[in-house]
Amino acid sequence: MRHLMTTASLAVLCLCASPPALAHDPGPGDPGDPVELEEVIVTATRLPQPEAETPGARVFTKADIEARGAIFAADLLAEVPGAAVTRTGPFGGLTQLRLRGASPGKTLVLIDGVPVNDPAEINGAYDFSSLSLSDIAQMEVLSGPQSSLWGSDAIGGVVALTTREVDGVRADLEAGSLNTRRGALSVGRAGERGALGLSVSGFRTDGVSAAVAGTEDDGFETLTAGLKGRITPRAGVELDGALRWTQSRVEIDGYPAPAYVLGDTDDVSKSEAWSGHGRLSVRTGGVRHRLTLAASDIARETRSDFANRFEADRQVWRWDMDGTGGEGRLSWAAGLERRAESADLDSGLSDDLGTRSVYGTVLFPMTSRVTVGAALRHDDTDDFGAATTGRLTAHADLGAGFGLSGAFGTGFKAPTVSQSVCDFCFSADPFPALKPEHAEGAELALGWQSPGGGLTGRLTVYRLTIEDQIIYRFDPLTFDSVYINLDRTRTEGIELEGRALLGGGFDLSLTYGWTDARDDTTGLALLRVPEHAGTVGLGYSGARLSGRLTVRAEGDMPDSGGTRDGFVTADLNLGYALTDQVELTARVDNLSDERWQSLRGYGEPGRTVALGIRLRY
After folding, report:
1. Beta partners for residue 57, in sequence order
2. Alpha-carbon gap, residue 560 to 542, rounded angstroms
């Protein structure tokens, strides 16, 4: 680890030591002024903070989404250092995220502040396969324990998406290889006194075989619709709300007789989900009060020889307030929350789980160069006791463009419905009494930015440990099968990020993650977490032509039944503006026609091409 840390440190220092003149090489018609980049703000921290000063934060803006030609959230999450994205088939297959080695159920997903994780999934994980970006204004990824801000499920981190407020008409049409078609339409009006917008997007493809050994194409189709509104009836009072609905159908492969190995089947999986919120905000003096009512619901069904169906819902009531103190130097936020979730499992078992929470966070500039933050939260579950979590953060401006950030936090995760009722458990003895999983995480980040922001770099070193991890244990002697608290996992890692504006409209970005994730009980590497992964992106933005080439690589990865081989793929996204309102687009995925697998045994398409048009009025 020491050698890798030294190597990564040298890489950042080399990037940081590059002559600032390289950050801005004036092209034709370029006045040669220093580049001033707009500051990116993280909002999922409850107290908005600059991305560069927030440990473990990565933000994808609306401009990032369009520059990369990203269709689904998973397309961007794969670029986050320390994140492992896996999927069972290229289109619509179960898509899961592991942040810093933590299992998928330990990343909380929020859409407009509404938790949308699946309570009926064994680990409470979220399936990213149908999460469209067509109506998303910003996606934030906070790596590391965030339970002090968001409670259970946030041990590995948080993915928070904010839907777009539309003013005008936006439309996208695209068609390409594998009989793939995509369309998106958004219409709305927005002003100081209010806003109302509607968005609809759809995606359909004939696909390829989900099983790498299969020959039958497995299609996928999904439809997403959203409604978002805001009104300010009087000064200091605001009402806002949003509703989002998604329906998907995917053909999947299974394990047919007599060989019972992954291959062609006629299995089909369907899902329907919606989430939404209503919120009243009132500002009195220097304090803003907000009352939020939110809900989400999901139904999943698989039609096969082993058919199943799951349904789950969640309701959240939240009151919070925020303000400033100390003559405006101190910012703070606090709140109360009640979360209730229920699930009906295919086995016929069901349960209702609930949690009452109180939390607070504060951000305080100790000096003009040093800012510290703290967060504390107490969660009292209906069935599994109480947990108190906290997080301390600090950022120091070291001068000469350098900044040092650090964080230490704790997290917890309550058992899911499947675990609480011991779904598909068999034992002559009473089932074990489960307790929440707990985690500790620490990180240190060194960042650098040249004058004007033409060159930026950040190196993060972290450690995450999880205690009392819940596993499903099968005893081959007694045939007992139960959920128990047993595992202790540990992840150590390095995350490297850098960006350079090369001049002439070109920019270069890179990310790299080294992840050593292990089960301390056995000493074995955790499955489906590659040790090495990274991306390199070369972008161009001209008067009419724009484009981005993204190269992504992953090393060998331990997987069920063996090792998934490493791979390198490249994607190209191009745009040509006919007018200020009309742009032609082209995407080439898997540019080199690489044969690769996200998961062992599951196929991915070769080179595909899509052409489209983008309208903005």
Report:
1. 142
2. 46
